[in-house]
Amino acid sequence: MGRAVSAVRVVAAAREELGAGGRRRLPAARALQLAGEVLAVAAGLKPALLYDCGAAGAAELRRYLERLREAGLAPLRLHVLSVEGSAVLLHPGLARRRLAAVLGAHPAPFVDVSAGRRCPVLCGPAQAEAIRSHLATLLAHLSAAEAASAGPVSSSEVVPAGWNLCTVVGVLLGYPAAYTFSTEESNENCLALTPLRVFTARASCPRIKDSLGVQIYSFSIPESLCGELEEALDAWRRELKEAFGAQSDFVGLCISSEVVSLPAVAL
User: Fold this and answer.
1) pLDDT, tens digit, 9 for 90 and up, residues 104-161
2) What are the angstrom distances between the C-alpha of 38 and each of 15, 43, 76?
3) Fewer CB atoms inside 10 A, N or C side of the chain?
């Protein structure tokens, strides 16, 4: 295990660099969770995380990551990707490998949940090919950004042209299958009251704080499609377990799933 870090310094880094202008202090528990999620990316347990703690942009996130390095977390290489006002924190090598794997996957791991459908279905060839073209563009962008970067924390901005960000971000986050829908109809979907199998992966991170539990993954797959996506799900479990065995920052990996049906599902 890497050397322990100061939880006080980790919380201070989040509050001082990512705070909303001092109007609302980030809760200590959320600051510790965020540090754990960053460490999970740096340790290679997942390709990326979507930053959702406030209005901080790429510059603020880079300063926050530098503060984590000063506190002793010291991730080797991270990249902050800005896309339409959102910030995605990437493990550069793992994110590129994930994009390349999805580009070559058969069947394509994209689930169409457009509002006009009676139930979720795997995307057809034409729809999948359009998504793959967006992912190939993103892969080229990340490869160029990585080649041009020098420091331990780099950043870039991509301007999506007709992308469904729900789909692209789902792939970047390492989900075995990503949802997509027709944005021409609406941003609604057909997942209401649909049985969904929710997969969760959690582990403890004593390097940051004893008994700190960190949620590494949480995603859903329509129960009706789990059979068709079984190979992708098995690969996700296998790769996560292999990555977990290769690191020393987290202990006690627990992968679980349950079936839920919700009156509405926001993507």
Assistant:
1) 998 899 999 999 899 999 999 999 999 999 999 999 999 999 888 778 888 999 988 8
2) 15, 9, 12
3) N
Q: List the Cα angle 35/38/42 in 5-degree steps.
A: 135
d(CA 168, CA 160): 10
CA gap 123, 179 in Å, rounded: 10
Q: How far apart are CA 128 and CA 135, in angstroms?
A: 11
Which residues sit opposite 110 in a β-bridge? Answer: 178
Give the CB-side neighbour count of residue 59, counting CA atoms within 13 A.
0
E strand or H helix at 130, and its extent?
helix 125-148
Cα separation values, 247 from 44, 45, 67, 92, Å: 8, 9, 22, 17
Phi, psi angle pair for 129, to nearest 5°: -65, -35
- C-beta of residue 45 within 8 angstroms of C-beta of residue 244: yes
Q: What is the pTM of this model?
A: 0.92
